[in-house]
Every structure is written in C-alpha cells, then in structure tokens.
Amino acid sequence: MKKILFVLLGALALTSCSKETPAKKTSYEFGRAEIRGLSEGYNASGEVLLEETSDGLKIDAYVRGLDPGKHGFHIHQFGDTGNNGENAGGHYNPLGVQHGYLPKDGFEKAHAGDFGNIEVDDEGNGEAHLLIRGLTLSDGTFSVAGRAFIIHLKPDDFGQPTGNAGGRAAGGPILIVDKNLQ
Q1: Distance (Å, rounded) from C-alpha 104 to C-alpha 117?
Q2: Residues 6+ apart with CB under 8 A from 90
Q3: Residue 69, C-beta contacts closer than 8 angstroms, at least 6 positions apart
Q4: Domain residues of the chain, as ranges?
Q5: Which residues of 52-79 are buried (b: 16+ CB within 10 A; e: fewer)?
Q6: Which residues 6+ apart lie within 8 Å of 44 measured at CB?
Q7: Which of 61, 69, 159, 162 is the most exposed place for a label (fewest CB within 10 A)?
Q8: Bridge partners of 32?
Q9: How far is CA 100 from each of CA 29, 89, 92, 110, 134, rounded to the nearest angstrom?
C-alpha cells in the first residue's frame, strides 16, 4: 500500500511540473460600436467593427458626416455617450500611464484607448484599420466591451495629458455581438 501511495504521489508531482503551454483560445468574440453624432451640428454616422483574433483585436472603423481632416480616435472609459459624449469619461487607461499612441508605444507608454487619428476625406468619409495585440473584448485587463469609441472634433497631437483633440464629434458604445448579425 505504501508503495502504491508513493508511486501516485510521484506521478502527481511530475504532472504538476509539466511545461505544457496553456491551451490557445479557440473561441473569439465580435463587437460593434454604432457611431452617431454627439455634438450639435454633427450628423455623423458609421460603425466600428471589432474581431478578436489569435493576433490581437482587429478594429475596422468606417465613419461619414465629419469635417475633412484628422480627428482624434480613442476608446473612452464608459459606454454612455450622453451629454455630448462627456458621460464616456476620459480615455480608457487601466494602467494610469501617460497619453500616447498605443499601436507604437504599447501599454506601458500609452492609454489602452489611444489610437491616434482617423483621417476624413473631403466628402466627410473616414476609415481606420488597426490590429492591437493585448486588447480583448471581454477578457483580462485590457477588455473594451462596455466602453465607447469617441471621435473628436480636432486631431490628436499626442500632447499631454490627453492629446488636445477637443470636443467629441461622434461616438458609440462597444457591444459584443453575434458575428452573423454584424
């Protein structure tokens, strides 16, 4: 009996030391933010589509009805875009770091919601396409579902503390959706 117990304990010790990597995520989520004008005089519309992939969170933004030029493009803390977008709070910043450009600077040197600018053409249409490793829709420190995309009136100049992008022209809450309903 002691011999069997010793063998079982040895086997348990060996399996607990296994160097196997955790299983890769096999089920990914999809998200969408319906973009609407937030400031008076802005009849903006559009959508931001989000897709979790094994390489990160894929973000595809399509907007219409904005002034030509660059506009700050960020994820803000809260999903409520009432009060001309002010209810969305500040940039999503779970680590409490300075403002920057997340795709270049990473989470240690930029807010998790700092995506720089979206370029709008002379017809009022703009697109942005990003892939951000580490962001997710609902898991972990950098999850974005329930927050809001905000498109600002002015360009993000990457100044401190928030990029000087001015008021909030358009935006919408980020919701998890069924892929077939996008």
Answers
A1: 13
A2: 76, 77, 162
A3: 119, 120, 155
A4: 26-181
A5: beeeebbbebbbebbeeebbbbbbbbeb
A6: 35, 36, 37, 38, 63, 64, 65, 66, 151, 169, 170
A7: 159
A8: 49, 175
A9: 27, 17, 12, 4, 16
Could you tell me the two tokens for 111? 């807010």
pLDDT confidence of 22, banded at 50, 70, 90?
A: very low
Place of tokens 């919408």: 172
Q: What distance in Å separates the CA atoms of residue 30 and residue 109, rounded to the nearest whole number?
A: 27
Closest CA to 46 of 171, 146, 180: 171
The CATH fold of domain 26-181: Immunoglobulin-like (2.60.40)
Q: How many C-beta atoms lie closer than 10 Å to residue 45's C-beta? A: 16
Per residue in 26-58, pLDDT (tens digit) is 557 899 999 999 988 888 999 999 999 999 899
pTM over 0.85: no
